[in-house]
């Protein structure tokens, strides 16, 4: 089919500095590289998911990438209505012949940053700040905990969630307070999976001279020298690939689980944090990554049994 | 001859379609007390508010001390030495007396300096005019008489030379009213000018030097008080002859319809306001309760009506005890209640008249089936009430706030009386009502009595009590001081009302 | 200053002027962003009313706002300010959803729908009960308690969705999707009778229920004894006491009705559209309801019109954001703000002017 | 134990500060008879203006000035609606909330292209923590050190401003001409009018005060507590402050304690998460998060009698109908 790519972001909006923004940057990269324009839409409420997907489908967009697990029902419905259009959904499985479902092994990436956190910590205490207490966030937390314990079995992990309303993802003040509370208990590295709230976590860690770990996108540059690393979830790659595959005529549907092996998750290493990651730390993380890829280490996926063994 | 203190020439004012003042001319001589009378809605308050800069006249000219002036706001009026005591007090209730007096004349950014000065000035005014109030009392806690003093003090504190009083005695007891007139005399003696609005023609005759009459927005006459009579004034006001005395035959009391036995009740602050009141009202008689306002009459009426719970004692209506404090129950037992304060309690002024015609009776089967109100029947009932009481305008759809005071009162009375209750309790039936309406209301009450109903009447107007009642009970400090008959001596009643009297045992 | 104006001026001309002013200012903002305001307005109007699916979405959103608007309006008549519509609707969604989850495998939709509606209303009412009771009995301010209950509702729902209702192994904190019987039918027949194609719009029979609710509220407030008591209590509590109206009873009953209406709103998103219980299902409609009720002057007809206006802004705004990518969804919020400002806050701005302009003409009419 | 208490209180102070500023802001407005449900919007707009100006001009003080200016402008708009044109105060407040939410994101995106966020602020663009005299010296003294060096010292200047504003407000309302007139206009505007004072002028002054304080609160949020503006970052604080205002029955000193209480509940909830408590063990996160709201309801129902709001609140002053 003709290439006419489109993206539908989740409620956070395309500039959420993490998940949706990663999708946006993937699409942008594609546009810059190929010169092919794309369309996108930021939904404002749940009813608009279907509406946006349907509009894109009707106007012949292809592929249509939906970001976020909340889009599953809408994608399922619209994909059935337009069997000739190609859809992709990130973070959820929609089992239809014209849908590509892309999942990430966030727990694997979180495991790696967990190792780095444990090794960077001088106190043996590290923290985690999530947005809302939903399974996806627990999955991050559990993988992180696993990594921390692997590097330092005696380490203590503090785990907090921000809130129960949509504000939980946009409340840097509360994020900062949570981080301060954890630091008061001794934590000196704090990993966040909390969207805009996480900016407060990073800021609080930076203000206190401690370390934070970013999420989804590369957030190392937000407070250079104070962001140990970022757990990358390559939604950008997923979006880019989806566009590119259609362009190259290599579109496939079905299930894609992007873990370390596929380059779908990882940790960020750049100018901003190269002095924070010692060679030993890098070695440990890379070794763990290799083992995970090789199957020697299986990081527990919280979603598989709703429990975290670490 | 000195210039008049106030001279109005061709003053005209409309509120939208309402033409409140039409081409008014008025001269008020310096150093006099000048009365203004007129029916409800005649435009008196409006005219005075124009003089005080509260409203702006559409046309016309105001001269103060012979000089033509513009009064765009109250500040300007104050600067010209005009002070006003409004019909509805302009007081900030949670404030102290001192704060109220200072408001707008604080004398500096900080209150402290001004407060000392105001305190001294209040003390001086208290000495000079006998206007005594505790400067630190919270105004909302003061009885109305005292609140009015605060209003007068406010005006004097601002150096008023011309003082306007809008229906000042409507809320006062005879005693308090006398005191007020003594103060006004003193003011006049000091060369100040007083403009006095009142519905009480006796007061006009007793206190003023000249009197002007308004009717339907026009100034219809001005007389020297010495040259006129109550009858003439009443006729000028209403436009027809008015009967100022109530004619009634002797009462023929029947069985007891209302019995209050040793009733005790507390107010919201927990103060005991009824301290063991017992009384009986029989069919076919009017029992009047005289007393200075605030001695428990309000609480007594509310207790009988089921609004205020009793802490001890009993109430029987038509022979059966009122089982619980529930106004709806009391009504079903045959009680009707005309409350003292129609604005606050008796009416929902935001509603059209027809909806006020059923207030309290809205659950009655005759107004509809099941949960529904039958609009047609409500309307019909309202029309009947309006016709029976000559409510003007007879428009059931008119918002109740837009009726004049007298007509609002008639709506309440009509609603309660036309229900054909066995027992009627009435508080201040003619407060703020003009003579024409008073006449009609009094006649209705007598008719009702003669139809064999039991009526309990509370009023601070001793005249009214004496004119209507078959028996008079005097209330003081939550207790009944004694019973007198209608012919009782006014002085004796006055003594009982102030708590001195032989009947203390009662 | 204010002459009495004929009803068509007060209820027709002036609101239109206000709306026009709001759009004018919104147009300025659009122009500032470098887009064509006329085109933007055209897109909004076209998007909201120009074709079947757009109309369907407009009415779909309006359905939510009608319920929450009525909820606020009813409470308003009793002098109560119910800010808790959001939480009541959220919890109402639990009631609706549980009914569907329990019955969708056994009963047809037309049997489930009434049960779900009752459950939604009952849950919403239950969520309003405590604030009402505390206000009536303990004097705690209903504005605060309902705000607090909004937060509590969110907390409760997240807990239930994550720990109780979530489908095993699924990512999203939502209940399972209902079977066909747990879905309200769409209104294609109605739309095509009106000459429209509903398309993908989730407009469903709960819209009809919303209309019925308007009639119900109108009859309740202006035609029943209870409504009379509610209005009396709201307008003058002392007179209500005098009339034998029990304040506790009126407060509680009014709030139960108000909460019930808010709870009913959940029928639309839960059973009518998404067919599951999901996070934040009220989606802010409870707050929009406040603006809708006030703009509609707490009258059901006004609420209906204001709700449609807001529905149109939601739908037209989405269309605008879709067609003009430079205009983000935030612009839509700005436009909403301007409409509320001009049609609500500044509603009397043009009145004196209109009165003056019309004065000669009106006087002639009188005479 | 003591240290933990100090840390919770320290966090309480930080969390109560924006509440307190906004609560006092609402107090000025509502004591003058203008109900303000738009506090949330003004707070948000203030936060945006402060962060934007600080980012562009590099100084938190310019940010503060911008925040105050913008919030006052919104407050005056509110005033225009419900003082001059006698519109419904609640509707007008709701409009302000919508406008602020939309415009901050819109302008933020237009100016900074970061999705409505302002650029992250560096230390020199933010209000730093003030170290009070002797804080260093006393730091290690038991008890006193904790209280002085941790709890009292080391906050942003806006924190001290906020806590100073409570007594200042009390003094202003009770001891000055402005305060007397402001309170009067909220209780009985007709009395103020007949005293020759302009009701509209007083109310405009009051809402301007309200705007100024909201602006300061916004500046605190985005340039002291965090380092930049994020869409919707006020996160309902305006409403909580409103609740605190009612809780405090519209009085300044109780308002301070109410805000401290709300701040404390929040701080405690933040620190209680995941902590194993006696008896119940580790409570679900949601329960802990709900605690402040639950306690508020319980306190309101249990201890605080009926509040009497300023009598003229919510009613536009109309002289001639
Ligand atoms: N604020 C107002 N707005 C509109 N109309 C008013 C207003 N005040 C008074 N009016 C109208 O002006 C007329 C005159 O009212 P005014 O209050 O001056 O009467 P009044 O002579 O003082 O009556 P009363 O004896 O009952 O006090 C009224 O009939 C009323 O219709
Ligand atoms: N909104 C209004 N429009 C027109 N006229 C009004 C309006 N409100 C009040 N009035 C008129 O103003 C006059 C004075 O009304 P007010 O509210 O002072 O009651 P009142 O009965 O005169 O008071 P009181 O019982 O103390 O004498 C009345 O004649 C009434 O008709
Ligand atoms: Mg009058
Ligand atoms: Mg009168």
TrEMBL record, chain B:
Transmembrane segments: none annotated. InterPro entries: AAA+_ATPase, ABC_carbohydrate_import_ATPase, ABC_transporter-like_ATP-bd, ABC_transporter-like_CS, P-loop_NTPase. One of its GO terms (molecular function) is ATP binding. The keyword Repeat applies. One of its GO terms (cellular component) is plasma membrane. Gene3D superfamilies: P-loop containing nucleotide triphosphate hydrolases. The keyword Cytoplasm does not apply. It holds the Pfam family ABC_tran. Its main location: membrane. Keywords: ATP-binding, Cell membrane, Membrane, Nucleotide-binding, Repeat, Sugar transport, Translocase, Transport. Residues 6-241, 258-502 form the ABC transporter domain. It is a peripheral membrane protein. PROSITE patterns: ABC_TRANSPORTER_1, ABC_TRANSPORTER_2. It is found in: Cell membrane. PANTHER family: CARBOHYDRATE TRANSPORT ATP-BINDING PROTEIN MG119-RELATED (PTHR43790), GUANOSINE IMPORT ATP-BINDING PROTEIN NUPO (PTHR43790:SF4). This is Simple sugar transport system ATP-binding protein. It comes from Oceanicella actignis.
TrEMBL record, chain C:
The keyword Metal-binding does not apply. It is found in: Cell membrane. Keywords: Cell membrane, Membrane, Sugar transport, Transmembrane, Transmembrane helix, Transport. It holds the Pfam family BPD_transp_2. The chain crosses the membrane at residues 12-34, 54-76, 88-104, 110-130, 142-162, 201-221, 250-271, 277-296, 303-322, 334-354. GO terms for cellular component: plasma membrane. The keyword Cytoplasm does not apply. One of its GO terms (molecular function) is transmembrane transporter activity. It is a multi-pass membrane protein. This is Simple sugar transport system permease protein. It comes from Oceanicella actignis.
From TrEMBL, chain D:
Its main location: membrane. CDD domains: TM_PBP1_transp_TpRbsC_like. The keyword Transport applies. One of its GO terms (molecular function) is transmembrane transporter activity. InterPro entries: ABC_transp_permease (IPR001851). It is found in: Cell membrane. GO terms for cellular component: plasma membrane. Keywords: Cell membrane, Membrane, Sugar transport, Transmembrane, Transmembrane helix, Transport. This is Simple sugar transport system permease protein.
